[in-house]
Specification:
- Helix content is 33%, strand content 30%.
- It is an alpha/beta fold and 301 residues long.
- It has two domains: 2-219, P-loop containing nucleotide triphosphate hydrolases (Rossmann fold, 3-Layer(aba) Sandwich), CATH 3.40.50; 224-283.
- Helix 2 crosses helix 3 and helix 2 (90-100) packs parallel to helix 4.
- The protein is globular.
- The two termini are 35 Å apart.
């Protein structure tokens, strides 16, 4: 079942189409990466999903229902531009935001206390937000995003301002929430984080969808018949037609065959040339490589 479906959604501001006829589905319980360069239309998409703004045309469905004003209560949204009240005390603010999402005062306080203990920030209860560092404010806003146990959590650059230790803490909580069945939309410029966390991605550029699918399938689609080989020295002095050989590290080379060459043919050729191989592994492109390639291609269409 899809928790969210967008069908031919378009949104324009004056003459500029921020989102141009985009359709995609997000399966319930998935970790979904929404990617794109600055100005691609990601934030506009997220604002339509959360009903902050509406599409000019097309349709957005939440669990099969046309998206309406009540659905955001079942979502949690952590925007890139943080929105805490700077002069309000942390505890009071978290209770206020939780009650806006439908929790009673006692239940809100109980859940917030639990998360603050979990994240080791209980001493911040009576501090004003403007007394906290950017990273501390980020943890507080993350609590406000998840405290009402939403079915769908939307995270826009969730690790911005966090040090490596707190990044790990928040990342582990995101993984646990997803493991328990919460759907996560994860928007970031950090491709290595997407690669670690997401099963599916959507890449948009200039308001248009340019790539969509499962991460593993996409990486296989863009692989380039390249292999990483470790060997026992010495390295034979050889050249093979149709195979590009490059030394990358000590006792390691990468070999790239022409498109029609099979891995078995490359492997057999290297053995026949006298290379004493220890390992032979296919090199898949990183999401960062794919991101750069597809965005550059779409810019020149």
């Amino acid at each position: 079942m899809n928790i969210l479906s967008l069908k031919s959604v378009t949104k324009a501001f004056k003459e500029k189409k921020a989102v141009d006829n985009i359709s995609f589905d997000i399966p319930a319980g998935s970790m979904f990466g929404l990617l794109g360069p600055n100005g691609a239309g990601k934030t506009t998409l997220l604002r339509m999903i959360t009903t902050i703004t509406g599409p000019d045309s097309g349709e957005i469905l939440f669990k099969g229902e046309r998206l309406g004003n009540l659905h955001p209560e079942r979502m949690g949204y952590l925007p890139e531009e943080r929105g805490l009240y700077k002069k309000m005390k942390v505890g009071e603010q978290l209770i206020y935001l939780a009650r806006l999402k439908g929790l009673s005062g006692p239940e809100a306080k109980k859940r917030i206390r639990g998360y603050m203990e979990k994240f080791e920030i209980t001493e911040w209860w009576n501090k004003k937000v403007n007394e906290l560092s950017k990273g501390m404010q980020q943890k507080v806003q993350f609590v406000s995003t998840i405290v009402h146990e939403p079915e769908l959590i939307i995270l826009d650059e969730p690790f911005s301002g966090l040090d490596p230790i707190n990044t790990r803490v928040i990342k582990n909580e995101i993984k646990q929430l997803n493991k328990e069945g919460t759907t996560i939309i994860f928007s970031t410029h950090r491709m290595e984080q997407v690669e670690e966390l997401c099963q599916q991605i959507l890449l948009i550029n200039d308001g248009k969808k340019i790539l969509e699918g499962e991460v593993t399938s996409i990486k296989n689609r863009y692989k380039q018949n390249e292999y990483r080989v470790t060997y026992s020295p010495p390295l034979p002095n050889f050249e093979v037609n149709g195979i590009d050989i490059r030394q990358t590290e000590e006792n390691e080379i990468t070999v790239k065959g022409e498109d029609e060459m099979r891995a078995a043919d490359i492997l057999k050729t290297l053995i026949n040339e006298g290379l004493d191989m220890q390992s032979f592994n296919e090199v898949l492109p990183t999401l960062n490589d794919i991101f750069i390639q597809t965005v550059n291609e779409s810019d020149h269409v």
